[in-house]
Design brief:
By secondary structure, this protein is α/β, with parallel strands linked by helices. About 40% of the residues lie in helices and about 20% in strands.
Length: about 220
Amino acid sequence: MEKLPKIPNEVIFNTLRILKKHNPGDLYYEAYLGHLAKRKDTFFDIYHFAWAWGITHKPKRILEIGVRTGLSICQLLSSYIDQTLIEKVVLCDIWADGYTSPEIVKMNLKALNIPLDAIEFIVGDSKEKIPELAKMGAKFDYILVDGDHSQEGAKIDLENVRTMINPGGVIVFDDIDPDGMSLAPVWHEFMNNHQQEFEWNEDYNGKGLGWAIKK
């Protein structure tokens, strides 16, 4: 198993604090304080992983399914010293709750001085939009699946991105713990079906995170 660098909680919360000022209606900062209080020094979540993977691998082509206000992509892209390494970032979400939007994502990225040149937004259901992207031959080095949190929907998203990841790239799956959305059965089914294709990892010290590195 690849050992990732430990990212201090202070790094994660500094980014959340900056974005909280620009988007005070987003309550993820408070929610993450709750997770930190529960897990303390063992706390590990998608934001920690994004920083660690960004620092060590610097993925050039990135896909996120389930973007919301862009906190995950903000954490990942903040890990780059040289932003010119980023070739393409595709962000897919339905943005249908009347609060989140691509404009809010852009606002958060700008607040961190992250260039928008490589950012592409896909508005719509990932179960329809991602297969269209796959048919065009799109490949990525980092794919986060964090969209439809129903078991059936999450299963479809995972299967849809399986062939879109480059060798050495990673598929990241959030919310497998009961503190998240209890999606561990979906993750383990995906793991069992494709055991030989990836190196498998998981951590339950937050909302629960699984990641699979393409062989």
